[in-house]
Amino acid sequence: MAVINPTLLIYGSFTLYHITPHTFAFVGSNLPIKSVPIYENGWRFVPLNAADKGDLYNQDELLDLLSLHKAISDGNELHDDVVTPNEEGIPEIHDLVLQTLDDIDSSASIPQSFDVKLEGETQSQLDESMNTLMALLRDKKPSIRAIASDVDGTLLSSGQELHPITLDAVLKAIYQSKSDTEEKIQHFFAATGKSRAGAAGSLGPIIGPLLYQCPGVYIQGLYCVDGDNNVLFEKKLPQSAIEAAENLVDEYGISIIGYDGDDLYTTELTSAVVELSEYYGEPTVKQLTEDGVIINLANYEHGLHKLLVMDEDVEQLSNVIRPKLEQLAIEHDATVTQAIPTMLELLPKGCSKAFGVQKVCEALGINAETELLALGDAENDVGMLQMAAVGVAVGNACPQARDAADFVIKERNDEGGAGLAMGLFGFDD
User: Fold this and answer.
1) Distance CA 2, CA 131 (A)
2) Residue 269 pLDDT
3) Shortest CA distance to 401 belongs to which of 426, 388, 382?
C-alpha cells in the first residue's frame, strides 16, 4: 500500500517519508479525507481538515483505520492545516498510530509516481507489521501499567541528550506514577548498565533528580532499588573472575573499570576510562590505591558488581577479547554482555538487566509479562524486551534487540523514538 505525491510517500502503517515540508491527503475506504502536514521540527501530526475538526477518531476507529491499509485510495488533496502537540508536548495517540515499525527497509527508493503497488515480500512485510501493531494496541496496550527503559541509545540521543519528545514522555510517565489520582502508568523506572548516579547525571537536571524518587535497575540489574531507595537486589562478582579479567586486560594492553555502586575504579586512567565520565556521564573513575600505591581491582575489599573491559579496536574486542572473556566467565561463575561496541561487561553468573527488571516488577506488584512496556536498543536489552508484555526497540537498535522486540519503531533515539513508543503503547491519551 502506498499513497504519494511527487515529493511524499506513505508506506505500511502510514510511515511518511518526506523530501520537502509540504502536506498531502489520504483517503481510506469510507473514512473522511485527512490531511498530513509535516510539523516544523520534523514530526508528523494528523489533523482533521477544516470541514470536520470536531470529529476525532476514537481508539476503535483507529484500529479499523489500520485494518484498511490494503484499501487506501490514491486520491490526494492538499491542505495547509498544521497542528501542534498537546500540552505535555507529546503527540496524541491519534497521531502516534501513524508512526510505524521499521520492518520495511527505510532505504527503499521513493518512486516518483501516483500509482504505486507494493508486491511480493514487501507487501507481506506490510501485512505482518500492520497485524502486529493492531494486535499490540488492541490486546496488550490496555493492560500496561509500568514502563522500563534503557538509557544509553534509547532515552539518550547519540549526543547524550534527551530529545524533547522523549523528555516530555518521561516526565508524563513519572507524573502519572506519582499522581494521587488513578493513572494508567503506575511506575516508570530506568533499566540500565549505568550506575544510578551516572544515569541521573546523564538524563539531565530535569529528569535526573526524579530518578531518585523512582524504582530503578542499575549496573545491568546488579543493583536494584524501589522508589523509597530500599535495595531490592544486588550481587557482586567472584574475586577470581576479577583477577582473571585483569590478567586478560594486561595481556592486550586495554582498559578496565570496576563498579561498586556509584564508585568506579580502575588501575590506569586511559583516555577510554576518562571518556566514560566525560562523555557517558558516569561518576569520575578513580585509581584504586592502598597507602598511595596503585593496587589491582581484585584486591578491592568491598567487591565489585561488574567490570567494563574497553577497547577502541572494535574488531579486536569482538573477535579476540570477547571469546577469551566468555571462556573465563564460564570458568569463574560469570557472564558477558554488551551495550556499547567498544565495551564488554563481565557480570556475576545468572544476572542480567532482565533479571533485575523482574526483581523490581515483583516488588512493585507488576506482572512483567502482561503489564510492562520495555524499551531498548542493545544486546543487553534482549531479555527485558522478550520478557515484557510489549517490548519496543528504537530505530537505531542492534539486530539482536530488533529480533527480540515485539515492535520496532522507525524513529531512532535521535528522533525521539522512545518518547513516541511510550505515547503509542503506554498512555491512554
Assistant:
1) 17
2) 94
3) 382
